[in-house]
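Data availability excerpt. The first of two example chains:
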Amino acid sequence: MDILTFIFDRAKITLSLSLHPEQGYTFRTLTKDKPLWISQAVSKLPSTCLPSKYLMLDQTEVQIEIHELLDLRNQLCEMMKESTFKRYHILIDPLIMNLHHIECPENFLIECTWDHHHHKLVVQFLNGVEPHLDGWFQKGNEIWNIPGWTSQDNRWLFNKVEPGLLPYFIDEVMSDMKSRGLPIICPIQFLHEDAIHIAIGDITQETVQLSINWNCQSPMDIPGLDDYVIDGDRLYLGPHLDPLMEFFTIYPIQNGLSLISGDGIPYFIEMLSGEWSHFISGDKERLLETHIIGLEFQLFLLGQTSIINGVGNPSAIPMLSVNGLYVSASDISRQIRPGKRFVSSESGWLPVSLLNQIGIGSMGRATNGSSLEAPIQLLPAEIFNRGSARLEGPWSRFELLGHNWQSGEGNPTLQHLQFLSMWGINGGVLGGLSQWSKPLHDFLQDLTEQYSDSHILIVGKLVQLESLKNLWGESIDILWLTSSAVLNKSAGHNPQWIAMTPSLLSKEAALQKKI
């Protein structure tokens, strides 16, 4: 034996069982007031003196759970009585010495209540009882345990219960604990009833009548728990209260009834399809048929033409396509106001949030600031090409209304002339009289019949006019001005059709002004 081992074997060893305010019940070992590993301190003891878990514990102190405390205390007290253990100095806190195990007191209760201010479940151990893990409790120098306690009980009663688990805790966990005889009470009742019921009544194009019935007096939301409200100690099924109360502030309840109108109707329908669905009854189908909410629409640029006396004036204007119908984007934009959620159209109600997403702002403007009101005059190339860089904007596409391009059926020359006239485009047809004389005749005749105030001037070389006159004959009332003599004879005659040579036209100042 070396000198160090001899000194250690002869030194006093302290076994201390104490209570510390922060650490709780603690078992520690020392020699000459210096910490000593517990395994070294008890290495010379018989294995039956202390629980086996301490024999190999390479640390100087360990916290003791209360359910092990009394056994360890009793074993240390037995050692104090034995003369063979005089080498050990055993210290036991007087508070621990005075502890004794009792049966669970009849008046002991665990109470679970709801803290309305902090929105949380509060677990209270009444009458000054101090809880420990695994179903052990202490009051003063008395300790007891509850039979049947499980690790799940530790989880529920010693950890925060998230608000989302409150209905499950009341319905399932509390029932299970009570069935196992745990002395637990919870005044919170989950009634499985709706806090509010809304019935749809009379439905018109302008208004919808609602009947409202509250089953509670002062409901409150529970942050973190959707679809439930609490009133005192009663838990109900219910929607979020803020939007509900805001809605019925705008449309007050009088004698259990509320009459909603304007954009309150589509907002109600939106909530009907969402969070409020469970709490609403009545003719939902008729409501949805009477008041349609458009959810799919596009902002586009519509090219169109206005025809005056047979000649088109083409322009483009922003439009909105909703459920296959076209509505003015400007008219819709003019309805948008701060705080307004929906605007009305012939196609139904339109959510302002979706209108903003596709580029429609307020006051007749797009969200990028461009005007939705002023028509854009179209150039011929933009009509033929169906758009241009100049026409780019927040709209999704450019569309020409009635773009009657040649269909491949019928007479292509006639269709071409009709297209040019409709869109106000200068143009013509290549080829001789045999190709275009008949289509031109039919085109001009249809045009003057449809637009009685229109006047037609045909300008061509003399030989062409003479040929055209022979081809057309007397089928139409046309004044053929092929010479100055004929021009003089026609004074006072004002036919709808006039044909003349370029040389005569250049001399006829009055006619030039009309042109």
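And the second chain:
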Amino acid sequence: MFNPNPAVIALAVSAALFSAHNNAKEQKITDTLNDLETIVVSASRTEKLLKDVAGSISVITSDDIENQAVNDMSQLFKYDPSVQVTGDVGGAQNIVVRGMGSDRILMIKDGMRMNEGYGANGLNDIVGRGFIETDILKQVEVAKGAYSSLYGADALGGIVVFTTKDASDYLAEGETISGKLKAGYFDLSSQSSIAGTFALRNGDFEHLFNVSTRSGEEEQNYNETKSPFDIDSNSFFYKGKYNLNETDFISFTADIWQQESKGDSADGLLTYFRPLATFGYQIVDENAKSTKGVDSFQLRYQSATPTTWYDFLNVSIYHNETQQDDVEYSQLDINAPMFGVIEIRDMWKTGGYNQKTLGFISHASKEIYENHTLGFGLDIETTQSSRDVIEYREVAGDTTKDVTTQKFPKNDVLRTGIYINDEIKLIDNQLIVTAGMRFDKYEMDPNGALKSTGETFLKVDDQDTTFNLGALFHINDVLDIYSQYGQGFKVPAYDLAYVEHYNQPTSEYIYEVIPSEDLAPEKSDTYELGLRGRIENLAFTSAIFYNKFTDFLSTELMSHETVNNQDGSFSHIHDKFQYRNLKSVTIKGAEFGITYYANDYVSVFANAAYQDGKDNETDLYLSSINPLSGTLGVTFEVNNFSSDLVLNWAKRMTKVNEGQAQSPGYGSLDWLVNYQLTDEIKMNASINNVFDSEYARYSKINGHAVDTDISNIAEPGRHFAMSMSYQF
């Protein structure tokens, strides 16, 4: 069954609905409350009961991923209105938490920092994030709000923690071999998938292997007017574990993921030339190919054997490399004597992005005395990033252009952080108070690179101290209230501080982005108050939040020039932009979720999220917030069968600035079916947008002009997904 987050109780509902059928309604509710014993790691960097967390955490489990027939990161949070994933299958994707996204959300996999993105205005629309195979995921957690006091730089608006599976997730006590075979089809992107997982235990050694392959194409829009690129992806995952004793182990993980997309369109290369067809510039051929890949390796030591200095210790070193190469080609047949050009021109544009991170991360905890636990750790990470674009042209075999541009200089970043976290339980464990502090030092070195003016790019050297304070009070066995305050910060990334970009997308317009080296770190303050629990057959959760961001980075128009020809006629417009600390931004909102158990077989659930965000200086709305939205659904389950009807809805978005498009309200119904045919075989299916409704999400509309034709970004019509698995 799916998990209607953002409610904490929704996680409990998910587990309860997919447990064995109980004959008593009261027992089902008890099981739901017991599932609040679920372990999460995002709130404290160590295992902690979900019920003891003073904050909102959305959780997606491996069961949710399978039961919802999820096959791509873009679908992970489709029933959580507080979390959005921008971008479609095969495209650049980013996670937005409570209206804040891009690199202001820190993404972590098994403790390792995942890649940063790249694109215009920090939107990461060229290189996305979260290159990962969903079949290897055991759990995904989204901790909302500032978490820099635990995780350091970039945890400005929240963190997303991916936890991968272990061999023990497949092997029962005494088993030496187990595994799972899975096949699926997703007609939205015509994607077929096959995955095999094998778990082995030999003495003190455990091994997990997963091999996955997917073949399909890009998502279509409602009118199916796209010419989708073909997309193929492959993943190999291995995790080996050696148990030193009952409490300590050493593990090694290798995660290799690759994706290739190709098609017959080269828009990035031909944007300038398409309008010139009437002047004799004819496109004879065009195609594009993009390859993305991530190689990550981790060596970990974990001990739960108490010593003088710690009761629990987790230390790991890791290497993570992300590479994306985009190649576009076109041939032009040019017959433009008015410009003095008659030729057959072959053109290539190749963009390469590379980021390597080497890290040492550690966390330890020690019980000082009963009900008082101290957590502490040291993180050291270094990252090297580069982005090159090569433009090459040939005419009759002769090179006419060969230019390599660095969109930002190759740079090295060193992050060092030390933190402490103190948890105290009072009043017979009814009150849990958590306080934390972290000191971070950040250095970014452009390695002597020169600007186009001949000046040297400056080094960036900064430091910051962040705090957090949270409290949770168990009012009684079924009702909790909590509050938290957290701080976040983000040092300006390489693509903002060092970007130097010149582009002429049309013959009449040139824009330029000039470097900004005096940027201050962005900072945030998060306040949250929540209540969760149950009243007889009704389980609920609620939260209100207020996030203030200062020194917010945005582009500013530095100059606007109209350039004329020598005869005085119009030639082109030339704009110059620069990233500046311009804004103080506030995002506030509320989240609410309920589940009602009507009887032993039927439950009804609903959730909603409200966001409001503005620039405090200009009073303009932020385009990253979403309209009031949520889900409404009903679940039926009996024995090995369950079925869900889920209505995704959103109110009309009217909080837009003058001249920008609003998004109409909508409702779209999904139908999910899960059936355990035998102990080994399970079937999962879904029909999405059952009534074939035409609508567009605001996350795709935002920023568009009021008169823009948005039919090409409308959500897909009716489509289905299905998977079958065999576990042995």
